[in-house]
Write a structure and sequence with these properties.
The chain is α+β, with helices and mostly antiparallel strands. The chain contains 1 helix and 4 strands; from the N terminus they run H-E-E-E-E. It is about 40% helix and about 30% strand. A 4-stranded antiparallel sheet has the order 1-2-3-4.
Length: about 130
């Protein structure tokens, strides 16, 4: 003969659905955070590579000032360009102080890095120490 111990134990369908809803909400928040972290990590890696490219181009520019005329180029998925402006010139025209900027952009045209430096050019275009 079966025993009657009162109401059956267990979860109702509503309780199970509420628990699933709460679990789904928590999981979606965690997954959103993971996706954002991955995107930020990728952007940071791109910015590091862009800064390295800008430093390389700046060193090349200092070693060969005639490269100032080279407006820019492409290096893999990144584009770069040189912007320069004259800040000052000595009265005899023997030296020119230039503000040089190397701008590196990503494949969609977003600026990833900008490196600036002031360079003193000699009258024949050489860089002075």
């Amino acid at each position: 003969m079966p025993r009657d111990d009162g109401p059956e134990r267990g979860f109702t369908l509503v309780e199970v659905l509420v628990a699933l809803l709460v679990a789904a909400l928590i999981l979606s928040v965690v997954m959103n955070g993971a996706v954002q972290t991955k995107a930020r990590s990728s952007l940071l890696a791109d910015q590091r590579a862009a800064l390295s490219l800008a430093q390389n181009r700046m060193e090349m520019l200092i070693a060969n000032p005639e490269l100032i005329a080279e407006a820019g180029g492409q290096d893999g998925e990144m584009g770069w360009r040189i912007e320069h402006r004259e800040i000052a010139r000595d009265p005899r025209g023997l030296r020119v102080l230039m503000d040089m900027q190397i701008i590196v952009t990503g494949d969609q045209g977003t600026e990833l890095a900008r490196l600036g430096r002031r360079i003193l050019l000699a009258g024949k275009g050489g860089v002075l120490p």
